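ingest -> fold -> write
write: protein_1
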Amino acid sequence: MPVAEKLQSPNISATPDLTRKPPMKPFLLMWLTWLIWTPPAFAAAQAAVLYHNYCSVCHGDRGDGRSRAAGSLSTLPRDFTSAASRQELTRERIVLAITHGRPGTAMVGWQTQLSEGDIAALADHVLTQFVQGGARAQPPHGQRAALPHAPISGTRAHGGREADAPRAAAPVDMTLPFPDRLSGQARNGMAFYLANCATCHGAGGDGAGPRAYFINPKPRNFVDAASRARLNRVALYGAVSEGRVGTEMPAWNKVITPQQIADVSEYVFQTFIQPQPGNGTPPAKR
């Protein structure tokens, strides 16, 4: 057919209708929907996976601390859904606990294994799903919460399913040294303790210092059985360095050196936790 006849054919328009919009193809619509909605949903799912892999083995799938591993821990895991947690836990406090752990408890710090972004996502997940969600975050009685698919199970991240089985609490290794190859000098730490710590913890380490009456929660009693069973050099160093959020215990790493922290920690360890005869320090109260 000649070109002229093609242009005159009723089925072919010589000038296309530029005002007519072609229909959006299905795959393009799906792609735009993914761009709009998937990132927040994906981030939330990733946070849930992180919680499942690193936290649920102790705190439970529902954040209530009722995991099968709870009976094997030296201290009970935090119940994020409790009224106390709703009053005490802020996002900042959760971030600190995930990052540095909680000295004197089974809660370890994850800063060497998780990025700042992962820790932030975990804190947001715990805060919104359990602390603020409370009972609403829990499924009906007798049903388990649905978990996102993850390549590693939460229990495997902590050593395998056998870690969930009830067993006697593992003893704390009291021979562990200070971090960063520090060596504490108890004699040097004594002066600092008596000048700065005894007002709360007491000269005898029994938590009955002059200020203890006005403090709530009460200062740590270093000479009771629980403290002597759990507070090794690592735990003491972490508590002195980072402080205890929600208590009167400050973070001394802002004002003294790591060596001074090691010195006062060694003094507490040798004097109250594992008293050393003949070290020139006051005897521990029993």
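write: protein_2
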Amino acid sequence: MSPMYDTILVPTDGSGVAGVAATQAIALADRFGADVHALYVREDEADEGGEIATTAVAEQAATADVAATTAVVDADGPVYRAILDYADDHGVDCIVMGTHGRTGLGRYILGSVAERTLRESPVPVVTVHEETVVDEDLETILVPTDGSDCSEAAAAHAVALAEATGASLHVVHVVDLGVLPVDESGALIEELQQAGQHALESVIDRAEDVSSVQASVLSGSPYRAIVDYAESEDVDLVVMGTHGRTGFDRYLLGSVTERVVRLSDRPVLTLDDHERT
């Protein structure tokens, strides 16, 4: 099988969370024999931090014997656009980036740069938090599915990752109890569970070459069920799809995916339904 990724981009601003992103990017690159590009987007000509930040990533990559390229570019518009333009110009097939730490309420903040990159990137984006622990072995992958085109694309990518790494694959469907009528008798729940089972079977059928597959229908709040499952099963990577298009031809990040990205302490890989392995 050809490598999943050849060129991995890690935008950096020299912060702690960018350091975690660099660790994740280098771990993936080492696993797939990929190169790492460390990118610093300078918004102010007086900003001299780019060389220090990118060199730190390159030095970290060198210790893992991973080839690294560094670049400092001036922002000609939004920072996320400079990231995506660089990715397009250099044949990047995966972006790894950090979000912006925690609020006082113990919830992760999804910074505007990360959010816009997630929404508009044509290649997979892996997000991490400052407290994310990167597992270099990538032994367990989780993919939630609802049977939509977007989740099917995510499932295909997750299956390919599991095949390439030998990781076990966990597939879950969550029945959202919050959308059911208060006086629901149970028949509708059973029907939704059966639909969930069909969605799981679709993924299981395509995962015949994966070493181990575990499928579950869960119930509750979808994002909370996914986050809790990832923690309880010690998942190394969550793979999820983003959602549809608006009338402005921009991708929307589904609320479930966005909340998982915000709240999970596991790396989360997101991709849209136009990304195929």
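write: annotation protein_2
The domain at 7-128 is CATH 3.40.50.620 (Rossmann fold).
The chain has two domains: 7-128, 140-271.
pipeline exit 0
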